[in-house]
Amino acid sequence: MTDTQLKNAGLSKERMFRWLPRRRSASVRMRLLAIALLPTVVIMPLFFIVTAVNWSSRFDNLLIAKVNGELTIADQYLSQLLENSDLRMQALAASADFVSHVRADDHDGIARLLQIQRTRLGLDFLYYLASDGGVISSPRFSDDRGMAQWPVVSQALAGIGSAQIDVFSAADLAKISSDLAELARIKLVPTEAAVPTERVEETRGMVVHAATPVSEGGRHGALVGGVLLNRNLTFIDTINDLVYPVASLTEGSQGTATLFLDDVRISTNVRLFQDERALGTRVSAVVRAAVLDRGETWLDRAFVVNDWYISAYEPITDSFGNRVGMLYVGFLDQPFRDAKFSTILTFAVAFAVIVLISVPIFLRWARQIFAPLERMLRTITRVEGGDLGARTGVENSDEEIARVAAQMDALLDQIQERDRELNRRVASRTQDLAEANRRLEATTRQLVVSEKLAAVGEIAAGIAHEINNPIQVIQGNLDVIRVQLGDQIEDIRTELKLIDEQTHSIFLIVNKLLQFTRPDEYAQGSEMHRPSDVMMDTVPLVQHLLSSGNIDLQLELQSEGAIAINRTELQQVLINLIVNAIHAMPSGGILRVETSDSAHEGHAGVRIEVADTGIGMTEAHLSRIFDPFFTTKQGEGTGLGLSISRKLVELYDGTIEAESAAGKGTVFRLWFPSATAG
Fold first, then answer.
1. Can you give 167-217 as a three-state secondary structure string?
2. How far apart are alpha carbons 470 and 502 in whole angstroms?
3. Exposed, middle or buried by CB within 10 Å (0-12, 13-18, 19+), for 150?
């Protein structure tokens, strides 16, 4: 089929072969190779990288969790040390020897006992402070004044024993012993990443300070002892053995523990050199800011002296409540990083081997696919050039590609027949489209009419406002005429009555128009009214119509409930329904008005029913009675009465419905919620 024949058939080659694959800038071969290799060469490596990063992060989190648990053990040991110090002071104070010496006021005996117990308990100082300020100590203090300055001591004198960490100045240590002051002295070692300082040595001492109250034989005092933690290798090595027992870390890693006074290492098993402990080295500035300045617990990698460690630091607080040092535990980071790198490298090598083995297999499979597809593409190119006799030549077999090629040849045979069928369908759909266009035009005309009616309604509302003023003037002048004429009015009473009626008719029409177009503007405040009472007051207003129309009114006013509604608007609705019923009975009949207490959808309320025995309405009229401007009174009425009535009923959350049959009369049912129903 030539291009001209295709155009005459309403087709193009693009439409004919839209079901066939398109030639892109990349060949089928390249696309199939990409499909075959993309999962292995791109997606799987990305997945491996994401997995490795996630695993590495979880591994690091496990290390942090581990060092956090180790810090908890070290902290518990320090707390136990303080508690044991307090218990030992209490035991010594309660011992029979000490109590007997205190009762006898035997100072020499107390001194000998303190010397013996200090050595036995491994204390650096031990003294008895009497309430009068006297001190008996071991060793002998060079100056025993000011001992009660410590909160631990002052609390013991007040009857409360405790053990705390305190920092003694060089002078405080010298009062106890010059040897103790010298033992506490540590030269500062310049440390990488530490806060710069001009100090060259640390002379203060961190002490486990314990005191317990003594009250025997009418004498009161305190028994006080302490252990210097500076260079206390037994203390720090015990912590390290508890936290890092043998084989608790990976091969090559090393666990360490340190006690800091301020930011200076005063007791540690971190090595500066092979056999020299890193006493006097200082913590890094970033750790000092977090732990000492802000009081935080550090759980992260940190540079310790000369290497990176997985580290945990926590602040130490003295008896004054000040942060005076830090407790540290940690282990070398590099062995764990090496193990992590080795694991990732092993997986990477294994993945690379898998890729090298699988890629040739994938390429072979891809070649079995793209070779037949390339033949199909060449056939498509010839067909697009106008050679409908072109065929793939691929033999039909059980392979999917071969079956597709054979099916394509069969499809080429069917194209011409499909084209003719397509032309018939196009003609049929064109006819359907024309019919749809005609319907659309009819709908558009109806829409224009509706818009015009809406515009007429707006114009009518404006005109109604303008008519109200002349009506009021006419009505006022009629009243003036009646007053001026006096008895002479009898001559023109009929004419004046006619003017009144017509004026009132105009007034009602205007009000209906206004209430229909802007009901909210004419809404009045609601009050509590009983529909039975309102109905009784409404009957006199329509009595003249009932009498003149030979209408038998039957009232069944049984409701007791009250509703929240404007009285005038409720009367307007009732009058409209009664007047419509009277007009529906031109030869007379029965008009029944009933009120009763009735529930609706679970809510208490009042039901009003207005029924007549008039001419009734057809189903077509009944479905439109609430439409604005619709009326069945040939040439009479505005068609707004029921529309306005429904708006008023719905304004007060009520419902209105009608039931009618031609020749059998009409029934209108209204329901309003009770004012007490919520």
1. EECHHHHHHHCHHHHHHHCEECCCCCCECCCCCCEECCEEEEEEEEEEEEC
2. 13
3. buried
Ordered by where they begin, the domains of the chain are 26-385 (3.30.450.20), 524-673 (3.30.565.10)
Q: Which of 548, 555, 539, 618 is closest to 587 using CA atoms?
A: 548
Half-sphere exposure of 287 (CA within 13 A, CB side): 30
Question: What span, in angstroms and rounded, lies between the C-alpha atoms of 147 and 127?
Answer: 10
**Beta carbons within 8 Å of 329's beta carbon, 6+ residues apart:** 67, 70, 71, 73, 74, 239, 240, 243, 244, 255, 256, 257, 258, 311, 312
Q: Give the three-state DSSP class for 591.
A: strand
Mean pLDDT per 10-residue run, the chain (678 residues)? 46 45 52 69 79 84 91 94 94 91 87 92 92 83 80 92 94 90 93 90 95 84 94 92 84 86 93 84 93 94 86 95 95 84 84 77 67 74 74 68 73 71 82 84 62 60 72 79 79 78 71 56 68 86 81 88 85 88 88 90 90 88 77 66 83 89 89 76
CA angle 434, 439, 445 (to 5 degrees): 130
Rounded distance, CA 239 to CA 253, Å? Answer: 17
